[in-house]
Amino acid sequence: TSHRIDALSPGVFSLDGRDIEFGPGDTIMQAVTRAGGYIPHLCWMEGFHPHGSCRLCTVKVNGRMGAACTVLASTGQIVESDTEELRTLRRTLLQMLFVEGNHFCPSCEKSGNCRLQATAYEAGMTGPHFEEFYPQRKVDASHPDLLLDLNRCILCELCVRASHDLDGKDVFAVSGHGIDAHLVVNSPSGLLGDSALLATDHAAKVCPVGALLPKRQGFAVPIGKRKFDLKPISASSPFDEAP
Ligand code: FES
Q1: Which of 24, 33, 36, 48 lies 20 to 30 Å from 240, alpha-carbon distance?
Q2: Is 232 helix (H, G, I), strand (E, B) or coil?
């Protein structure tokens, strides 16, 4: 199709009235990120294949909703991101993520470095809005160097992709569907301590929330001096986190 052909050559599209240049094969997210712009996202990270699951990056492309991390850029597209309609949609998606898990920011070691928290702050989310599910989920402290707290997992699958694509290990997978979907560990016991995961693996460092954390580093940087305490997430370079 012409869309496909456009995507294979460089060009320019418009994001909220600003011209964005793109290269062959770029998604809208990649082009905007490289141009120093920001579209909210949780399951996308520079250097990873897009997953398209969190929908935080929903934009309007020529009037139709699409995920900026999966839609290919093409010449002349009119992309809207910073609109009241999309801000409201993103706030709702964030509120749903918060109530589906157990996210207690004030007592979480990831506070200030958490992409869910920082994205919600910037989206103007001031409360959960929906009733909390308070699901019963496991904490796995079996690994000598890492803590896995499924209460905070948002199923972005960045650890799944990092383990498979970068570490060549397949330590993580997601099992089940819908509200039953959950992260599982591939090991004889199902516990992390029994898996091939090392603290130096990409998969051990990629978690955007506090689900997978290094042990014995709690509060090494005090709250108030952490990454998103200093700069909002829209002004923080995504290339800092790239693998
Ligand atoms: Fe695009 Fe999650 S960042 S769907």
Answers
A1: 24
A2: coil
With a threshold of 0.95, tell me whether the complex ipTM lies above it.
yes
Reduced to 3 states, what is the DSSP secondary structure of residue 216? Answer: coil
Closest ligand 1 atom to 29 CA: 1
Instruction: Give the atom of ligand 1 at the shortest distance from the alpha carbon of 53.
Output: 4
Taking only the tens place, the pLDDT of each residue in 145-202 is 999 999 999 999 999 999 999 999 999 999 999 888 999 999 999 999 999 999 999 9
Q: Where are the domains of the chain?
A: 2-82, 95-232
64 Cβ neighbours under 8 A, 6+ residues apart = none
For domain 95-232, which architecture applies? 2-Layer Sandwich (3.30)
Distance 29 CA to ligand 1 centre (A): 9
Distance 81 CA to ligand 1 centre (A): 13
| Ligand 1 interacting residues, C-beta cut-off 6 A | 41-44, 52-57, 67, 69
Q: Is the domain covering 2-82 a CATH 3.10.20.740 domain?
A: yes
